[in-house]
Design goal:
heterodimer, A: mainly alpha, 12 helices, 0% strand, B: mainly alpha, 2 domains, two-stranded antiparallel sheet, 11 helices
């Protein structure tokens, strides 16, 4: 019998195909919102691996997202015309280029995650939060100074390759990888690191390596999400990936309940749709977020959506 | 040489402000073991108190300026204690991560609440102190710079006296060393912690006024960068260590000023974090701190 997560993955990929097949007939606004929701789900689920399951507090997820966004955009904008020829290539060729660009973005974000993780994951709690925040700022300053990538003005003219299919497919892959990883024998180490680091070390787990693995995988998917975001908005600026964006993702993880994938997905959907519904009070968005954070920590620190689904806690 | 001295002076006056903010971080970390992210926004509120009060005192007088400074310090002290009472005290027994998240929440609340109350556009901070430029040789010294360094020095000496010569200071050190043992010898931890928050926030308020004097454009997000850098300064000196915070602040301010005067000026904001990473890699306890192994 095929294991349940694999079945879910296959079903979601099929759904992605079906939805993208009918996407011409759907409302474009609805599709846009759906893409936004999907990108945020990828970000939140991947951050949940670090902040939730492994219990490390990273505030630099937007930084990794920006690495992925810039690298993927660099591939399609700078190398794209040369590879596809003057006529722009066929849809299939564009698809392959986009896929390669996303992978390049994800891998470079993972590399950035490794570079950040190795020195900083020896630290605990608040120190780690601060170092990841600092790295996010450094990445932003670097992109502001790289003229090839548009400098402080940002990179424009990115081809609009992101479709509902790509987003849904990567949501499925992200959720699949994170779920399978955490439920594998190896993945129990993430939870052990989260529960009690000293105890985990005393039974011979290399907690630093677990933290780095979580960090690198989280950064990889943040990079993918960044690539999708860049090819969806068609323009990216260094300031678009600042501290506020990182906080937004953190709020999704906390609201959903740290270490609870289903809850985090629900929270990501809710928090992406909420601003759409609350356009008139858009300026109060961050105030509402901050109050949400404080109230949750005071009243319900385990998260809003932290309940068991059936017997299996996804 | 002249340029070097000029930059050194600029750096020291910026560093003095970082040091004042860093002291608040370090003291709170000392007693509660968590980063008070909202500290940088208390700093911002201090500058705004100065902005609103500064218009009602005679401009450019020493007395009026000092009155505004004192009011900002008092206002921030109250704000700090209110935050502690309402938000941090209920979480005294909660895991560190929860407190940290709450602190970020409070920080965002003050920043974006500030944008709604004060408006998001930058304001011009009034010149509340008399301003002159002194010339020593070719060196140009603004009275504001001297004033910043002077006030910072007085406040730091005052803090040192409070912590080491008064009864409440002794209690603060006792709570920092071991909260349970402090309680056993009859110290009311809640009072001490509230006092620590008040003291640290008052210094942040003073820092806000001094910062606004030298960089007279204030907005609700003005605290974010100086706050982060001040925190780096606190780690640089060794968190929980009061002379360390002062040293770290001065060092960081000086380095940053020299970098912004060089060809690498666009990387100015990244330098603090680069220093942070190097310090954490090679000397995680900071320059003056002691490394303590966590025991079960």
């Amino acid at each position: 019998m095929i294991p349940r997560p694999h079945l879910a993955l296959a079903a979601t990929l099929l759904a992605a195909f079906v939805v993208s097949h009918f996407s011409d007939r759907l409302d474009p606004y609805f599709l846009d919102v759906m893409i936004g929701v999907g990108i945020n789900v990828i970000l939140a689920v991947s951050l949940n691996l670090v902040n939730g399951y492994t219990g490390q507090f990273s505030l630099g997820h937007a930084g990794f997202m920006s690495v992925g966004a810039y690298l993927a955009a660099a591939v399609t904008v700078l190398a794209g015309p040369r590879l596809l020829g003057p006529d722009g290539g066929s849809a299939l060729q564009q698809g392959w280029l986009f896929f390669a660009a996303l992978l390049a973005g994800g891998l470079s974000a993972a590399l950035a995650g490794l570079l950040v993780g190795v020195p900083s994951l020896r630290l605990k709690g608040d120190y780690l939060a601060l170092v990841t925040l600092g790295f996010g700022e450094i990445i932003r300053v670097i992109f502001q100074n790289v003229e090839v990538l548009g400098g402080a003005l940002g990179l424009n003219g990115i081809p609009a390759y992101t479709t509902v299919f790509w987003v849904l497919a990567f949501v499925a892959v992200t959720v699949f990888v994170v779920t399978c990883l955490v439920h594998s024998t190896y993945g129990r180490g993430f939870l052990a690191t989260h529960d009690d680091e000293i105890a985990a070390e005393s039974i011979g787990l290399n907690t630093t390596r677990y933290k780095i693995v979580a960090f690198v995988i989280g950064a990889f998917f943040a990079g993918i999400a960044g690539g999708l975001y860049g090819h969806f908005k068609m323009t990216i600026t260094p300031t678009g990936f600042d501290f506020t964006k990182s906080v937004e993702i953190v709020v999704m993880v906390i609201l959903g309940g740290m270490g609870n994938t289903v809850g985090v997905i629900l929270a990501a959907i809710l928090l992406t749709l909420l601003p759409e519904l609350l356009r008139p009070v858009a300026e109060y968005r961050m105030v509402i977020y901050s109050l949400l954070l404080i109230m949750l920590m005071l009243v319900r620190p385990e998260g809003l959506f932290n309940f068991k689904v059936g017997k299996i806690r996804l | 040489m002249i340029e070097f001295l000029q930059q050194l002076l600029n750096g020291l006056s910026l560093g003095a402000i970082y040091a004042l903010i860093a002291l608040g971080y370090t003291m709170v970390y000392g007693v509660l073991r968590f980063i008070n992210f909202a500290h940088s926004d208390v700093f911002m509120v201090g500058a705004f108190i100065g902005y609103y009060l500064g218009r009602h005192v005679p401009a450019g007088t020493l007395g009026g300026g000092l009155a505004v400074l004192a009011a900002a310090m008092a206002g921030c002290a109250i704000l700090g204690m209110v935050i502690e009472r309402l938000v941090y005290r209920p979480l005294r027994q909660a895991p560190t991560l929860n407190v940290l998240i709450t602190a970020i929440g409070v920080s965002l609340f003050l920043e974006y609440g500030g944008q709604i109350v004060f408006g998001a556009a930058p304001r011009n901070f009034p010149a509340i102190f008399p301003e002159t430029n002194l010339h020593v040789g070719q060196l140009s010294i603004s009275s504001n710079q001297l004033f910043v360094i002077g006030v910072a020095l007085v406040l730091m000496v005052g803090l040192q006296l409070i912590v080491f010569k008064t009864k409440i200071g002794t209690a603060m050190r006792a709570v920092a060393l071991n909260p349970q043992a402090a309680q056993l010898v009859g110290i009311n931890n809640d009072v001490v912690i509230a006092f620590t928050f008040g003291l640290g926030s008052a210094l942040a308020g003073a820092g806000g006024i001094l910062y606004a004097l030298n960089y007279p454009s204030i907005d609700p997000l003005m605290g974010v960068m100086p706050g982060l850098k001040a925190f780096v300064a606190a780690i640089l000196g060794g968190i929980g260590n009061i002379p360390g915070a002062a040293l770290g602040g001065l060092l960081l301010g000086t380095v940053e000023t020299f970098v912004s005067g060089s060809q690498w000026s666009t990387y100015k904001d990244a330098i603090a974090f680069a220093i942070l990473i190097v310090i954490l890699l090679f000397r995680p306890a900071g320059l003056l701190g002691k490394f303590i192994v966590e025991k079960v």
